[in-house]
Structure formats: C-alpha cells, structure tokens
Design brief:
single chain, 771 residues, seven-stranded parallel sheet, alpha/beta, four-stranded antiparallel sheet, 28% helix
C-alpha cells in the first residue's frame, strides 16, 4: 500500500454553515455562521472531500411487482402475459413477486402500472459491498485502534490518542449478551474461524444436516442463517472475506487469540446475499435477495441488522422491507465514493426511516477518510473505518478499509447497549436515537455529517454519568486540557483570548463553539508553554486573536504566526475600541449579515450569565453581543442592525440587563421578538439557560460561578459536545444545578478546573444525584 495518507481537507466554513446540530427546546437557527471567517482558505490534502462521483445504479433487468391484496394467481399470470414476462420468484413482501419482462423495462413498467391489479412496479437493482477498493495493508498490527487508540502506528500512520470508541471502558459494564443477535447481511461468514466458531446464532427449531425444513420456514437446514444467493445453507464460499471481516469486527471472541470484537458476547446470524469472490458477479446482491434476508432476520428474531453495502438507485420495495423491520436497528454504511449523500443518496443508508443509522468512516487521526461518503443531513454518525483489523477466512486477520468497516463498529456498540439495557429500547428507532445521543464530540466532522460525533461504547452502556475533571495547574493549562479533551489535530481555527480579563472571550467562545474550534487563554504579553504545546498539537489552519493590544500584545500575535498556516497570512486580530465593539466585530466576522437567526445579549461588565449563554449559542446558533446594564452601546446597536436577528435572547435578569435595555432591543428583532432567559442568581440563570436551550443533553459541563476563565475555555467544548454549561459554588453544588443535572441525566459530566476551583465535594454531590 502506498505511504500517501488518504485524507480529506479541513472543512470549509461553507460546509460548517450547512448545519448547526442541535436538540433544543427553542427555535434552531435557520442558517449557520458564515461571516468573513467563513471565507478563509483551507489547506488542501490528498483525497479532497466531495470530489468523488457516486456510483451509477446497477439494474438487474427485472421488476418487483406488488399486487392488490387478494389478487388471484390467474390475474397475476394475466398481468405477466400482458408484457411477455416470466415469473422469477416470490419477494418477501405482501403480495409481491419478481418478474423478468421479455422486452424493455420502461415499456413493461408502463403497462403494468396501468393494470387494475397492480399497486406498484419497481425496477430491481443490484447493491455492492462498501469496502475501500485500495488493497489491504500488508503488515499486521496487534493493536485495534478503533477500540483503544493510544497513538499506536497503524499501516504507517500514527494515531491520535483517544480517537476511538472507548470499548475497553464499556466492557466494565458488559461484553455483550448471547441473547442479542446481529444479522450480518453480506457475502457470508466463515464460522470455522477460531474467533467466530462459537459466535454463530443457532436456529433452535432446525435439526442440523437432516435435509428437512424442520421449522417450516421454507429453508432446509438453516442452522446458522441462509444463503439467499445460492438458495442453500452454505454460508461461506471461497474467496469471500468481507462478511467474515464484518462479523469479526462485531463479535470476534475474547478467547486470547487473534482479535476481539466490539461485542464479543453477542451472536451472529449469517445471511448471504453477495458473492464476494467475484465482484463482477451478476447473479447476487439483488434487491430481492436483500428483501428476503431482511424478512428472515425479522422472522427469526434478530435484533440488529448490519448492512455494509448499498447503491444509488432508490427502491420502494427495499425501503418497505426495512420499514417492516422497524423493531430492528439497521446500521448502514454511507458508501465509499467520496460523495455527498444529500445530493446523490445511497440506499439503504439514505432511506428516511427512523430505524436506519447511516455511518461515515474516520481514520485513526480523527478525520473523515478520503473515501467515505458524507451528508450534512443524511449521514448520522462517524465510526472507525480505515485500517480496521478483523477476521478473514482461513483463520487469518487483515486490515480492511471502507464504510463497510465503520458500520460494524457502530453495530457492535449498538449490540453492547442492547445487551446492557435489554428492555429499554422499544424498537430500532429508540436504539438509533440512543447511539446518536450518547456519541462523543468529533468537531472535525462538523458540517460533513448530521451529528458531528463518534460512536461511544462507554457512554452507550453506563447507568450513571462518568464525572471527568479537565484541569491544569492554572487557568492557561486548564484551557489547554479542555481543548485536548475535545479537538483533534487539524482544526480549522484556534481562538486566542487573554486570561487576565474576560469580555473578549465571551463573544469569541460563542463563535468558537459554532465553528468547531477551541479557545485558548494567554497572558497579555506572553504565551504560557503549555498553551504553545497545545497550539502545536492542534496544527490550526488559522489563528484569531480576540481583542486589541491592550488585551493581547502585538508581540504575542507575532509569536503565534509561527503556528499559523503560512497560506492564511495570519494570525488575524478581531478587535474594537472597547469590549462592546470587540464583541460586535467578532459577531460580524463570524456571521453573515443579515444573520436572521437568534442573537444573544449579555452584560459586558459582569460575566456569569454570558458564560452559560456561550454554550447555549453553540447549539441554538447565533452570536453573543455585550451590553451595559442600563444602556445599549452603539457598537452593539450597529451589529444588531447589520445582523437583523429574528429573535434576541437576553441572558440574565433585570439587574444584569435592565427592562429599559430590553425594550430598546425590540427595535432590532423581527416582530420585536425579545425574550429573557434568567433565574434568581447566576446559578439559577445558568440552569434556566440550559432548560431553554437543551431538551436533552448527554454531556454537561460544570464550572465555577465565582471565577470565569475555565468556563470561557469550556464554551467551545460544550458546544462541540452539544451540552450546557452549568455553574457551581466551589465546595457545594447549588440547587438549580442539581435540578438541571437530574432532569438531563447525562452520560458525562465534565468538571472544569482543579480542586482549588471546584472542590472534590462537588463531584461527590454530582455522583450522589445518580445512585
């Protein structure tokens, strides 16, 4: 394999602007941020995202015909004779069959659609397996980075530590239950492999090798599944490695040899639809075979379907089959054409069904792979899919790449969750929602997929939140620690603010939260070494300094130039004559005018209310502007005039922002739509903001309410994780924070700062909320 890394470039702001992911109680911004910041250049890399071409549909020359209920065989025969078609066989849908017309498909379909007994006529297509066409790597690695990435080198490329699915951490809760059955619809599974021999599902009503259909399901000796391509019980043929690799990724045994699957305790039902040994084979991989396999999975009690395959042709019958399987979660590969599924859908991943989870692929550095398809609205999550080590026939192991590998990684996490909570999920849709909700932040995918997150096995199986402290020796080191826990190298921007005074960071943190970028703190005239180290690790394309030289000296900006991409000609400074003008400058740089969405207004002299607002703006969308308590500054007025928001949200009560200012703000919001999010004090206000902005949240950030620097750095991370920022006293957790934590019931709580800022007693109280 070539040593050239197959990489995508950093996302442009135009793509970031395509989507602001949120699960919020209030309105979501109609458009994303795309101000002057959105038109900066990025560094191109090998394998530019979006330059691929979607695969052309592969028609079989046959039609799936669906008849009216009760249509007789004589009437069906008459319909077939009207176009000179022969009957190929049944389709596992009500009143459906597969036919092959003698003439052209278009003419035959036109005749049948006008037939009184025909409900629908659909062309049958052939689907393909989604494995990267590049050859597999030659060396074998003992480490499986998808499960546990410690920065080990895989296939010649060093990983980024913790870019993984937190699988060993999840195994503290469950390694998977044998009651959970995953149907692998693929090119077969080699159950003679030592890592798969005891992972096969067994049909309890079928007697092996007696040549009898014991359970009367139409399949003879279907003990571990069925081959719908060859219509027999042989589940694996020579040269077919794809399905075996997929099965091992999901459930390879924890037996002390080879590799281990994400959920080594679950069972695999092998449903062979493809003939992997011959990619040009035209007898397999058809919609009808897939439909029959899906129906088999449902009837035989599977819980999850893994679909590492697809095609660009829409099929109503195939969609119906997945819809009829609503009790099951179907995990589908997004495709390997480096194309946009929003523009050219790939099915089944793009079927608009609540039980289908569409998965893109990332590599071990935490970015989308060069081959993976994407979709800002149609692809749900990311999972490891490049250089994934798993089982292949002959008792061997190979690295493979493709969204075919990403899908089973996500499937394994789903199987762990179902094993841990066997009665929690009513159907496939609820299990899908759980995987999306518990996934961890992956800001590098912002703008590329619907939820910029990576599946997280640990979070998917915990019964109480993990409480994680992010801290350094001081506020500067803490800002670096928060950044390191959230962002992988190759960020589009880094925002730099003074750690000695805070108003500039208030507005900057909100923009950073929406652009998937960290905010780091520096001294006025120097950059602490720990912050320099983090900037070097992040490898940003651009650096933005917030505030004038009175806040961050020009010598600091000059020093930062060594870390800015040379093509960007930065670092850039966003500044105004005062804090209000600087906030306005940041807002207008980050958001196109007219903005038309929500704008937040907070007190620029007392900061706690704006802290929580920065995190909320990350999911609601919109800039944070500053005001005096009793008068609206001219720069804020000018910014609001230019941005033309549809709604203005005041953060804090009338002491922070007076009723007179609130009344004045009505002139700048469409329909005088001005609302106030507030509580009795800063702690209650933070909880109230959370309640307004977050209908649910898997992650919550907790910061000191009496000192502000840690919370400022936390806003971008909170925005990336899609969670609120709550405030606490140093030694006791305020009642409003307790109430809001209890309501949200998160899977993670990040405590920002050391014990001198937020004492261990607060962590004890948080744990006490979830016995």
């Amino acid at each position: 394999m070539s040593a050239v890394r197959r990489r995508r470039p950093l996302p442009s702001f135009a793509l970031v602007a395509a989507i602001l992911v949120s699960a919020v109680a209030g309105p979501v911004a109609a458009v994303g941020p795309a101000g002057p910041l959105g038109h900066t250049s990025v560094t191109p890399r090998t394998g530019t995202k979006g330059t691929g071409r979607a695969d052309a549909p592969q028609a079989t020359g046959r039609l799936i015909v669906q008849y009216r209920p009760g249509t007789s065989e004589a009437a069906r025969d008459a319909a077939r004779r009207s176009i000179g078609a022969r009957r190929v066989g049944d389709v596992a849908l009500p009143d459906a069959e597969l036919i092959e017309p003698a003439g052209g498909l278009a003419a035959a379909g036109s005749v049948l659609r006008n037939h009184p007994d025909v409900v629908a006529v659909t062309r049958e297509y052939r689907r393909t397996l989604f494995v990267d066409p590049l050859p597999p790597a030659e060396p074998r690695f003992d480490e499986q980075w998808a499960l546990h990435n410690v920065g080990q080198q895989v296939n010649g490329f060093d990983g980024v530590p913790d870019v993984d699915m937190n699988v060993p951490e999840a195994w503290q809760e469950t390694t998977g239950s044998s009651d959970v059955v995953v149907a692998v619809i693929d090119d077969g599974v080699d159950f003679s492999h030592p890592d798969l021999a005891d992972r096969a599902w067994t049909n309890p009503d079928e007697i092996p090798a007696n040549g009898i259909d014991d359970d009367g399901n139409g399949h003879i000796d279907d003990v571990n599944g069925w081959d719908f391509c060859n219509e027999d019980a042989t589940l694996h043929d020579a040269n077919e490695a794809h399905g075996t690799h997929v099965a091992g990724t999901i459930a390879a045994a924890n037996n002390g040899i080879g590799v281990v699957g994400v959920a080594p305790g679950v069972r695999i039902m092998a449903l062979k639809v493809f003939r992997g040994g011959d990619p040009e084979d035209e007898d397999c991989g058809t919609d009808t075979m897939a439909i029959d396999a899906i129906a088999y999975a449902v009837s035989e009690g599977a819980d999850i379907i893994n679909a590492s395959w697809g095609g660009t042709a829409f099929s109503g019958p195939l969609e119906d089959a997945f819809s009829d399987a609503s009790a099951l979660l179907a995990v589908a590969a997004a495709g390997n054409a480096n194309s946009d599924n929003d523009a050219v859908p790939v099915y089944p991943a793009s079927f608009d069904l609540p039980n289908i989870l569409a998965v893109a692929a990332i590599h071990n550095e935490g970015h989308l792979t060069s081959f993976t398809n994407f979709g800002a609205t149609s692809v749900d999550l990311a999972a490891p899919g490049e250089d994934v080590l798993s089982t292949v026939p002959g008792g061997d192991y190979e690295l493979m790449s493709g969204t075919s590998m990403a899908a089973p990684n996500a499937t394994g996490v789903a199987a762990l969750a179902l094993s841990k909570f066997p009665t929690r999920f009513a159907d496939g849709a609820s299990l899908r929602a759980h995987l999306i909700h518990t996934a961890r932040a992956l800001p590098s995918t912002l703008g590329w997929i619907a939820n910029p997150r990576l599946v997280d096995a640990r979070a998917a199986v915990v019964s109480r939140p993990d409480v994680i402290r992010l801290a350094g020796l001081d506020r500067y080191a803490t800002s670096a620690a928060i950044s390191s826990a959230t962002f992988v190298p190759g960020v589009p921007q880094v925002f730099i603010a003074t750690g000695e005074n805070f108003p500039d960071a208030l507005a900057g943190g909100a923009v950073a939260a929406q652009y998937g970028s960290p905010l780091l703190l520096v001294k006025r005239t120097s950059i602490p070494p720990v912050v320099l180290d983090e900037i070097e690790r992040l490898k940003p394309v651009q650096i933005f300094v917030l505030g004038g030289t009175g806040a961050v000296a020009e010598s600091v900006r000059t020093q930062l130039a060594a870390y800015d991409d040379p093509a960007s000609t930065g670092p850039f400074r966003l500044e105004g004559a005062d804090r209000y003008a600087t906030a306005a400058e940041i807002a207008e740089a980050g958001f196109d005018a007219p903005w038309g969405g929500t704008a937040f207004v907070a007190n620029g002299e007392s900061f706690p209310d704006a802290l929580a607002g920065g995190a909320a703006s990350g999911v609601v969308g919109g800039p944070v502007l500053l005001t005096r308590a009793t008068s609206l500054p001219a720069p804020t007025k000018a910014a609001l005039t230019a941005l033309a928001p549809s709604r203005i949200v005041i953060l804090g009560g009338t002491v922070a922002v007076s009723a007179a200012v609130a009344n004045e703000l009505k002139a700048y919001a469409a329909g005088q739509n001005v609302v106030r999010w507030f509580g009795a004090d800063r702690y209650a206000t933070a909880a109230a903001i959370s309640g307004q902005a977050f209908a649910s949240a898997a992650s919550v950030f907790l910061a000191a309410g009496s000192t502000f620097p840690d919370a400022l750095s936390g806003d971008p991370s909170a925005g990336a994780f899609g969670g609120p920022l709550l405030l606490t006293n140093r030694t006791t957790l305020p009642a409003p924070a307790k109430t809001e934590l209890t309501r949200l019931a998160p899977v993670r709580v990040f405590v920002l700062g050391g014990s001198a800022v937020v004492a261990d007693s607060v962590i004890t109280e948080v744990n006490g909320l979830f016995p």
